[in-house]
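User: Please predict structures.

Assistant: First:
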Amino acid sequence: MARLKKDGTEAKKTGPAVRYTPEELHAKIDEFLHDCEANKRPPLLPQMLLYLGISKSTMKRWCSKEMENSDAYNEAFEYAQLHREGYLLERMVSDNKLAQGCLNALKQPENGGYVDRPADTGEQKVTLVIAGVGGEAAAK
């Protein structure tokens, strides 16, 4: 049975206590990104999660719509993703030797989910143009 607030609306699941408020999380992610930049290390997701002291499932839970402040948590993790994506793009265009490796990393969902060819939907379109003898009357 769903829990209700005093006003009668359904309460969001809170689950176990979260380690960081959205503001603290954003600050901690900034700290991680500055540390990576200072030590010339890539801002990879597994290292960030270890730095934060959380698991991937915790990150997903914090970003799920059932959690309070999920949009703010999601925004903080998207901010980190943009930094990872930017780091990989910068490395890819600045060093030809790294281009393929960076492109492979960019194809991973947590790094942007790039695709190098359009997805095959199995749908095909054919356009038939009737022109010439008879005009429109011939097509009836």
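Second:
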Amino acid sequence: MLLERDSLGQGQTINSQGIIHSGIKYAFSETFTPKDQLALKDTSKLWENIERQIHIGVRTRSCLLWPYAENTINTTIAALAATSLRSPVSRRLIPPHLKQAPAVYQIQEPVITPYEFIHSLYCLHYDNLIHCPFINFLSPTEIELPRTGIIKSQITILAAGRGNQDLRDAMGLPGGIKMQLRPLHMVVARGDLPELYGHCISRKGVETTITTTGDPSGRTIWQIGGRIAEVGANRSKQDQIKEAVKLLFLITHGIDVKKLEFSTYKVNRAEVQTRLLKKPTSFSYIRNDNVITAWPTKLALVPALAETIIKTLPPPQNLGDPVNHEERPAVAQPIWETWTQEWTTTN
């Protein structure tokens, strides 16, 4: 049984760019360690297994990777020596909007549609989903639902992102578990845009990651993340859009930004606290008797985290009937389909 306070996937999942990272991009980061790639290298097999069972909305099977400028080439080549990549894409196969790039590489990183992935899980497990704005914990493994009454479980798993700490407090679990929030200020552009999935790198790391999706009106949308989203976490909406426009001018070719509309959104990445509040190298989970608190760290690691936790669980006992009298949650929508804020042009 899964209890959801808001909409299923609300927060980090629906707002993610949907890239199933291979770990290669971390070779271009100053904080790169072998653990980064090790944690991600086997996730592709898990996702392939999931795709054989449900629809996950694969948009592309691979991403592009290109240097920010000519003077980044040596950095790129050195970093690629630590990866499986060797040769760039032939110049005749480079898309027109990246013709200015000194080199373009192709990496095997699928991109999925988070909404479609969540919706497939929603349909598969509908009878076991409950919308529960307020959870009345009688004990860590005992709750009271509005219509059904008292429900008992063998194991309780907390996977609420930034809400994990509040749930632990409500259960009366021991302290000492610290959580960190690493903010992002994402940029969204819509208009006459080509499909683009990939990472632009500089000497400072992944300058930006761009993925493509669409809206109900058929307009193309770019989600623009990466370093610009991290360093721009405290910028105003207007300043962040200005930085994004500058960046697009430098790293793409033939994109008329004056014909595009822009907006931004902020999201926090909830993780177990690390030294100096740096990015964790993998997922995390903590067990307190019959309660497991889990943080996947990134979408790509969700199946690996689930598989690891499942191996620790006892065989299910005394399975009850589906709870049919409770309200079901809705599936979260992409943020640009629900917000009321205005889009901005650069004219």
